[in-house]
Amino acid sequence: MTEKLKRCSNCLLPETYETIEFDEHGCCNICNSAKIKKEKIDWVARKKLLDQLIEKYRGKGDYDCIIPFSGGKDSTFQLLYLMKEYKIKPLVVRFNHGFMRSVINENNQRTFKKLGVDVIEFTPNWKIVKKTHARIIYP
Predict the structure, then answer these.
(1) For the chain, which has fewer Cβ within 10 Å, the N-terminal or C-terminal residue?
(2) How many CA atoms lie within 13 Å of 112's alpha carbon, on the beta-carbon side?
(3) Is the separation of the CB atoms in 81 and 54 below 8 Å?
(4) Element (H, E) at 80
(5) Element containing residue 113 per DSSP (H, E)
(6) H or E stretch including 91?
(7) Is this structure's pTM higher than 0.85?
(8) Are the beta carbons of 31 and 25 closer than 8 angstroms?
(9) 54 Cβ partners below 8 Å, 6+ apart?
């Protein structure tokens, strides 16, 4: 007899999804995190703080802000949102850890070109990359 694949009671993500954990109700940690963010964070107050921070530094230098960029959906959204919503001129800093897949690289370059941003790519010493990744994998 085969065991049935356990899934989140809310979003149906399977137990095979990387880093997934379930609570006593069968709800996954991703859904629980989203629920906390939705219910416990005052997003109106957070937006007001962001507005104040941006206005404090806008126009003070060649760039209005520095945006760290990993190449994933979150940092891409962050970059697009800040440019469209606030009309800022960011300096994008991308950390090159040496494991970037070519499709991500291509997507990043298209994004940078389309948005017309300046980008600095930081490639650290390989020993540092190994050390930081070892801490992530083996905390």
Answers:
(1) N
(2) 20
(3) no
(4) helix 73-86
(5) helix 102-115
(6) strand 90-95
(7) no
(8) no
(9) 64, 65, 82, 86, 88
